[in-house]
Design goal:
175 residues, 2 domains, SdpI/YhfL protein family protein, transmembrane helix, membrane, SdpI/YhfL, transmembrane
Length: 175
């Protein structure tokens, strides 16, 4: 079977332009704050998925980078169409790798920004304390039974499960 070389640039460019369109849409929606929290598009990590506000902040931070990655892909697609032949695949792949690097980098910045947003449940932890320095008596008043019940949520043997809250979802994902 012989592959028509004139079709390669078109196929490679369509793939590149499809990713550019997707990252452009996500970048614009993220910048405007209109990207709803979902499982498919946007910056998705434990820190960003814990609240709508954290998801919005992460995607606003990552939005300009996503638009930059889309720009890289658009240029790559144009060059891919202009070059032709087997080199078109090289330019398309290089453009995709560069864009994915940018997306990964700005996503990390988004996750870092989202981790600074207080979670909805950080107002008070039912483990040993209320996370309030002014309430050390609350920590002393927790009974051993309460500690064991709350610690069992994360599989720990003593209270402190509140500090391990994020580990529970990661352990089940690794299994």
């Amino acid at each position: 079977m012989v592959v028509d070389v004139s079709v390669l640039p078109v196929v490679a460019a369509v793939v590149v332009f499809a990713f550019a369109a997707m990252w452009s849409a996500v970048g614009v929606l993220g910048l405007s704050g209109r990207l709803p929290r979902n499982r498919w598009l946007g910056v998705r990590a434990d820190e960003t998925m814990r609240s709508d506000e954290a998801f919005t902040v992460a995607n606003r931070v990552a939005g300009p980078g996503l638009l930059g990655a889309a720009g890289i892909l658009i240029l790559s697609g144009i060059v891919t169409l202009g070059v032709g032949g087997y080199w078109s695949i090289v330019f398309a792949v290089v453009g995709l790798i560069a864009a994915m690097f940018v997306v990964g980098l700005v996503s990390a910045y988004g996750v870092r920004a989202a981790s600074a947003v207080p979670a909805d449940d950080e107002a008070g932890c039912s483990c040993c304390s209320s996370h309030d320095d002014a309430a050390p008596a609350a920590a002393e008043s927790a009974t051993a039974g309460d500690e064991a019940a709350h610690a069992a949520d994360c599989g720990t043997s003593r209270c402190g499960a509140c500090t391990l809250r994020g580990i529970c979802s990661n352990e089940s994902a690794q299994a």
